[in-house]
Amino acid sequence: MFGYSSSYRPESCSSPTGQDNSAHRLMIALTDFRGYDSIMRFLITGGAGFIGSEFCRSLADNSYSHYGLVASEITVLDALTYAGTLDNLWMIQDNPNFNFIKASIQDATIIEELLSKTDILINFAAESHVDNSILDGSSFVSTNVLGVVNLLEILKKFPLVKMIQVSTDEVYGSIELGSWNEACSIEPNSPYSASKASADLFVRAYSKTHGLNVLTTRCSNNYGPYQHTEKLIPTLISRLLKREPLPIYGNGKNIREWIHVADHCRGIAFVSSFGQRGEIYNIGSEDEYSNLEVARLLQTVSGIDSKIEYVPDRPGHDFRYSLDTRKIRSMGWSPKIKFESGLLETFNWYRSRTS
What we know:
Low-confidence stretches: 1-6, 15-31, 33-37
CATH topology: Rossmann fold
Strand content: 15-25%
Mean pLDDT: 90
CATH class: Alpha Beta
Helix content: 25-40%
Number of strands: 12
Number of helices: 11
Strand order of the largest sheet: 3-2-1-4-5-6-10
CATH architecture: 3-Layer(aba) Sandwich
Distance between the termini: 42 Å
Number of domains: 1
Largest sheet: 7 strands, parallel
Structural class: alpha/beta
């Protein structure tokens, strides 16, 4: 049963239960919510990437209709950098409701034209590979910070448009024990996470200052089909299929919370309908594994016993990420795919593509 409000509201990072503000939250939610079976026009920026394309494919397939999301138009804007490709969208390119525009979120003229005929903007556009940000952080500032500010500036002209900023758990920093809720301070440790944290703060500022209907989701590590091979799980799968050693940073004990991309996108769809302006929503699975455990699980599901190869650790490598997701779960969302079954599905997908 989906709810418009939640009795769970974190008042602080150290004391997450807080007071019950359900009546106030219900009033705001009813103001923001467009209603079930609304026919809406979507602008999906960064929609040719891994996560964005999953959302677009599912939206085109009416997979989010039970959240009240039905699209009359799906417009994808993507710069098609190395991590974005139309191959991720080939199955919906003939959909009469689908449009694609090759452009950057920094192109103000194009963005303004598109927002004039948009109901919901979901921003997936981002430079996201931490290793690349360590080598050179400038492109991360250009896209992840200045690009988001450009969206927000133009959005001031279209106050009825609802914007979802897709962010990451990495903005919180590293946590030895426990889990971050939405009230925890942000302490990013890489140029990538610093750029995403900056964007989060601009989203908050434009909501508070200009009253924009913008909100933020912060998700744990994603995996699944169509992910770029630079990321950990596709890298390990690619090495397994070639019977090559599996590279693991440092001692392999760094811990991540893993969520299937389909569950993440269901969370974004849920927030698109039920999320309240100015709010932050953590989206996670509670499935925590060290990098070494992930490698060994892949050895098990694949039946391939490639050697583990420890490589020099990444500079500033965060030890552990973990999200407290009681806020969104109390509203009626929860993940469906357990890590081990999702990992097997993902391995089989990459194997089928290789063959």
